[in-house]
Design a protein that fits this description.
Elements: H1 2-7, E1 11-14, H2 22-26, E2 28-39, E3 46-54, E4 57-63, E5 71-76, E6 85-95, E7 101-109, H3 115-122, H4 127-133, E8 144-149, E9 155-164, E10 168-173, E11 182-187, E12 196-208, E13 213-220, H5 225-244
Amino acid sequence: MLNKFLEGLRQIALAPRTKPGEELRSRIRVLCRYPVQIESGEGPPDRAYVVDIGLNGMRVEDVRRLKQGSQVQVASAYPGLEQNRLTCEVVWCRERISGGYNAGLRYQTVAPDSWVRVILDELGLDDERGLQRRKYVRLATSLRAQVRELHSNQLLTEGRVVNVGMGGVLLRSSQPLTEGAEVLCLFGPYSHYPHLSVEATCLSSHHDEDEKDYFHSLGFSHLTAREVREVGRFVVGLLKERSDAPNS
């Protein structure tokens, strides 16, 4: 299912900026074209398309007129996933010039195994599950990385990327980092993706007795629109390669 969704991904987009940090991350939208079925309680389900999806909701195109404030059920249109429904509130509904309507939907209930939760988790937008995944998701173990002090540019540690998402990166290295430290994270290059340099905050740093190394959770901070797009292309590219790989 994830592979089919990724085939429809277009780019990572950023809504107008207001504040950095969590509010900024909550406004990140993934542009796509993903077929869904929408049940409004009036007649049979309608087939429509999700054209962007984010942490709090989604935008759908080519739907019947939906009443603002009403609840609808949204399910993936891919065979076998029709019963995996997501309850959403209709935030707005506008008529299209070409016919039909577009609508903005806000998630009301998102089950742990929901198709939306899986997608958000894979893209690193879902902090609740993303933190639980921690070091167990090996998305990009071959990427080299450096961590430098943000203001002095002093090299703090070198290591490897364990996983990377839109919210941050998990690094493995032989030296500890100070929690709360503001750093510059440099990683790559990978395939046709260049080096990335992103400001981050060290959220945690701990030594793993089994692995005999330190694991550092770095949360990206103060991302510009350009950096969001670059990180987004990087993450989506890695996800596509992983979903296409044998035994993935």
